[in-house]
Amino acid sequence: MHAFYLPTKVVTFGDFTMRIPATWGFERQENGLWWWGDPSDHPGVLIGRDSRSVDPAAGDDREKAQAVADEIHEVHRDMPGLRSFDVLPHAEGLVVRVVLGDDPDGIWEIRWYTVLVLEDEPTAVVTRIKLIFRSAHRDTPLATALDSLFHDQAMVFHLRAYGDRAPRPPDGFYRPLRRVTFDGVVTCNLPLAWIARHKGNRIWWCSSDQYLGSMNVYYSWFPMDLDEVDVPASLAETASAAARRMLDDRREVGIDLESGVGWAVAHFTYDDTEDDPEREPDDEPHRTHFWHLSRAVEGGIVLAGFDLMFPVAHADAPVFRNLVEDMALSVRTAALAPPGPQPPPPLDDDARQFDMNLLRAHTCFDFINICVPRRWIWDEWQGSWGFFAEDEDEESGTLWVDWNAYRLKEGEVGAPAPMADTALQDAMEVYGGEGQRGSDGAEKTDLHDGTAIWRTYSAEEKGEMLRFYRCDRFLTRPDGLYIVHFSLVLLESQADDPEFVELVETVGREIEAAIIL
Questions:
Q1: pTM
Q2: Which DSSP letter does residue 5 get?
Q3: pLDDT at 21
């Protein structure tokens, strides 16, 4: 069996940042956040943070943290199903790990409490993580991966500087990020709530309906033979030159330059003023953070610009402080690639736009977890799970999901892997041998938990020519072989439309990232 890999995404809420599974959504509940719906049916996690008073005379910070750990033990020691209670050392305090198993509803819980004591204050900050899943999944690779994911994070939580104020519980602010690609050239993390619109001339504008700042993303291409130039110097010069071009005599601000292996970033900040010629008289003053990233790629250097703007009056608000931190990291970790042979098409006011908040998590057959476009509704039909537009007249594609299982007989221990190999070989022969995705051949792809076979073909149904994008995922389990089938169907006439090309890429990525229990 392949090693289990759990795709994750970074989310930020309140005053701390975490990683959660990439397919999980969220729902606000009391003083924390549930991800992934009803905990009686699916894995989920509740996260919160609170402050607790400690006795100033209780000793040093470690002893104060131990007093809080004793209080936590007092709460849990008589709970039914208590399997273990451990107090673990933390670099700045203590971590309490509690395991509660097999409650009357068949639920298994793992809880972590990271206890950190504020310096010179009678206050301890406790970050709480409660992981919940069905007892039947306790020994699955997914449960093991989730346990490891949240345990590692509980052990490294630290207090973010808040001046003289103690961190407070989450106030409802939640800003998940999603990795987004522009024109196949610039790939970076941006707030999930942002919508991106193509402004033409290789420029994208990103913003949300509920105002969370806005950003322009753009890029330039400098072809050159990297073997004949001083690449570090060229990267720094490209980023600095782009930053200087954004300035004039009225904008006397400093430029910060950072660099790493194969990249350089120039950054400066500018507040517009009443006499700024580009500012309308009634406009609220804004602050803009400019980043210019240059990165060496095959055949030359790509320069990407990121202009983040929000009201000056809000600059000290936690939401915008966190946004600046996230975008600074996003720029440093952005991936750049050479532009394709065709430049982006010129677009007008009616230009296509895509919503980065495109996806929502859904579960099919109680064990197939996948993200699908938000505009799709779902239904079950003849044993398959279908996703499609609510408006019957809207041609937005359809995704069908179903599965087969080939169970092992008693005594056939060790047989799943050979069974999977045989099934893969048979499938490749049926599909006509190896090929490229987008052709009538088949393409085999190794995934985090098994193997997928992709193929694309056209067929006529009820007088219409349809394009099928078919993926069969083969998963080896101790009790047999499972094959999960995904089929995205479009009209043949839509296949080359840029909007549907993007849909195929998005749904294809989510099919490969789907978590199958």
A1: 0.42
A2: -
A3: 75
Of 231, 214, 192, 430, nearest in space to 314 by CA: 214
The DSSP string of 309-335 is: EEEGGGTTSHHHHHHHHHHHHHHHT-E
Beta strand segments in 136-234, E: 174-182, 186-191, 195-200, 203-207, 214-223
The type of residue at 37 is G
Phi and psi of 422, rounded to 5°?
-65, -45
Percent of the chain surpassing pLDDT 90? 15
Q: How far apart are CA 128 and CA 31, in angstroms?
A: 11
How far apart CA 195 and CA 29 sit, in angstroms, is 26
Whether residue 43 is predicted with pLDDT greater than 80 in this model: the reply is no
Q: Which amino acid is at 79?
A: M
Phi, psi of 204 (to 5 degrees): -120, 140
Give CA–CA dist 92/396, Å, rounded. 52
> What is the side-by-side order of every strand in the sheet holding 480-491?
376-381, 384-389, 398-407, 480-491, 464-477, 450-461, 442-447
Q: Is the dihedral of CA 351, 356, 357, 361 positive or negative?
A: positive
> For 291-335, what is each residue's pLDDT tens digit?
999 998 888 899 999 999 988 887 887 778 878 887 888 888 788
Candidates 161, 197, 191; CA nearest to 173 is: 191
Mean pLDDT (whole number) for 209-232:
83
| DSSP secondary structure string for all residues of 271-282 | E--TT-TTS-TT
The average pLDDT across 210-239 equals: 86
Residue 172: pLDDT band by 50, 70, 90 thresholds?
Answer: very low
d(CA 215, CA 193): 13
Q: Which residues contact 497 (CB under 8 A, 6 or more apart)?
A: none
